[in-house]
Predict the structure.
Amino acid sequence: MKIGIPKEIKNNENRVGMTPAGVFALKKHNHTVYVQSTAGEGSGFLDKDYEEVGAIILPTIEEVYASSEMIVKVKEPIVSEYDLIQEDQVIFTYFHFASSEELTKAMIRRKAICIAYETVEDEDGTLPLLTPMSEVAGRMAIQQGAKYLEKPIKGRGILLGGVPGVAPGKVLILGAGVVGVQAAKMAAGLGASVTIMDINMKRLRYLNDVLPNHVVTAFSNEYSIRQHIKTHDLIIGGVLVKGGKAPKLITRDMLKEMKPGTVIVDVAVDQGGCFETTRPTTHQDPTYIIDDVVHYCVANMPGAVPYTSTLALTNVTLNYVLKIANLGWREACNIDKTLEKGLNIVKGEIVYEELLHAFEA
């Protein structure tokens, strides 16, 4: 199969769809791999690194799309890429369709085979291709939140870990999935006082056993959230609805209950966000302030640490890329039900149930 790796062109997106090691594995199976020139530079991989393992370097994104049967990316195609996508071409990437009706309609028009990393799902309900980026984003949420709590950036002026004689900052985490647990670990490691909320009591019991004693679990409901936001300095939104829009757990009126300078980080921004006031931001302009609350809603957080993120992503995507390349998308999905759940749009038809209802009024 002819496989293309274009350069990511979303704002400050420095990741790349595949490492040279991934290209090496594809070449061993006699596939042709086209890599756009400089596609890997942001992640620390040079054109010569790809050439040494057998990739063909093409100068433009147009040539990569035109030459390839399958495109392997990181982020969803943006407007300038829509018309480059060919009918029946396999696009394997993070799509997050539920957050963009425009993207969804564009992919329907292009009649491509859209396989979304974020909905590839194991039998136990885990999301193997979303997990590594959720791990990165969860940890980064605390790293970024701690920075934006600083007073020069309009935060409360709080050091999360505190110092002897001064209480640590308080972190509230909504959602006890991968993002929430990684955020809790990072916040606890800094010495912060941490509360993690979820509606799954089985999950909360497990976390109560394995997380440090200064991480407190709490059952999530609107009343409880309203009480907790009054006293916490950093709030992380990490609730995921597989393939659908995230629930709005913090509404606009709730911002007035927070202390001025509170920081909220919405890791679910790719799925529409956990906060009513969420709107996607970029690494170039990451924050905005509403009612004295600092919002950090960068839609590609792991793109800021591209070396780590690209390695972590290729670790989990490569086997699926190989399966599609070796067997074709249809046969690969027939024999691998985990991969089959990644099918979102096929030749102009939405085939992922949650997406069918994403844009209903």
Notes: The CA atoms of residues 138 and 179 lie 4 Å apart. The radius of gyration is 21 Å. The longest helix spans residues 306-327. DSSP finds 13 helices and 15 strands in the chain.
